[in-house]
Design brief:
By secondary structure, the chain is of the alpha/beta class. The protein is about 35% helix and about 15% strand.
Length: about 325
């Protein structure tokens, strides 16, 4: 009997392909081509399952061309590439990879905060250009991290991880805003105090964005929000592109409306707003917050396990819908 057909939409660990091949007829993508919507629809036309990443948009048009599709397993905790309502109406299961990347992403968020506060990228470029000729008392003086106020917008698992690192490791005062306030126990464990979004922006020395992307959070940080922040403050985005109005941020950085920013995600990535490439006071990384070998493998394994569990047992491990 022939095996069910699935698509692995991007290149992935060979061990994952081997695992999936035990159960399915796998169409892999070792050349790591990013499929156009038309190509993706064609590839899925005879598939029952898909291993996807953030680069594959699963929407009504794609679903209409894939009558046999039963599940899309995203190798990411975020799933804004999924039209979940359309998937549900077409009877297609959506899954993601929560938990396995929490601590690694929190580590990176804090690393990006420190690199931004201490002007590491800016000073490295200065050194590489051969401009370092002498010591100066104010050479690349940055912002304190220890003992400062850390503001977090979005207090899920990753936000809580960053809060704990700040409160317990660096003696920071942690304030946060979330769609719903955390329990007193979790607040105590995180060393965090709930405030309004506006108060977090006004008060924090370092603002870290860890909120999910949605229509409601699109451009949640724009010119008006940046104007609330201290001119000495930094903004860190490890959430999703589109939460920040990148054009407004570039202007705020150029005008020294805020001191600096650290960005791992961008609106329209992998394209980056050209104005962000011309301001010196920003640290830019290519969406690598979860990028350790151990964590990326765990993400891929969970996505594969979702496909196997759902298509062989009818039960997804980490369903979205």
């Amino acid at each position: 009997m022939s095996k069910p057909k699935i698509l692995v939409a991007r290149d992935v660990f060979p061990e994952i392909i081997e695992q999936l091949s035990q159960h399915f007829d796998v169409e892999a993508n070792p050349d790591d081509v990013i499929f156009s919507p038309t190509e993706l629809a064609q590839k899925l036309s005879d598939k029952v399952g898909a291993f996807t990443t953030g680069s594959e948009r699963i929407d009504a048009a794609v679903l209409a061309a894939a009558p046999h599709l039963k599940i899309c397993a995203n190798m990411a905790v975020g799933y804004n590439n999924f039209d979940v309502a359309a998937m549900t109406s077409h009877g297609v299961k959506a899954t993601n990879t929560p938990d396995v990347l929490t601590e690694t992403t929190a580590d990176f968020g804090f690393a990006l905060l420190m690199a931004t506060a201490r002007r590491m990228t800016e000073s490295e470029h200065f050194l590489r250009r051969g401009e370092w000729k002498k010591w100066r008392f104010d050479l690349f003086s940055g912002a304190e991290v220890h003992g400062s106020t850390l503001g977090i917008l979005g207090m899920g698992r990753i936000g809580q991880g960053i809060a704990k690192r700040g409160a317990h490791g660096f003696g920071m005062k942690v304030i946060y805003n979330n769609r719903s306030r955390l329990s007193a126990d979790i607040e105590a464990q995180s060393g965090a105090t709930f405030l309004s979004k506006e108060e977090v922006l006004k008060t924090a020395d370092h603002v870290v964005l860890v909120m999910p992307y949605s229509a409601e959070s699109h451009h949640a940080i724009g010119a008006a929000e940046l104007a609330l922040m201290k001119p000495t403050a930094t903004l860190i985005n490890i959430a999703r592109g589109g939460i920040v109005d990148d054009a407004a941020l570039a202007k705020a950085l150029r005008d020294k409306r805020i001191a600096a920013a650290g960005l791992d995600v961008f609106e329209g990535e992998p394209a980056v707003h050209p104005d962000l490439l011309t301001v010196p006071n920003v640290v830019l990384t290519p969406h690598i917050a979860s990028a350790t070998v151990k964590t990326r493998f765990a993400m891929a394994k969970l996505a594969a396990d979702n496909l196997v569990a759902f298509l062989t047992q009818g039960r997804a491990l980490t369903p979205v819908n």
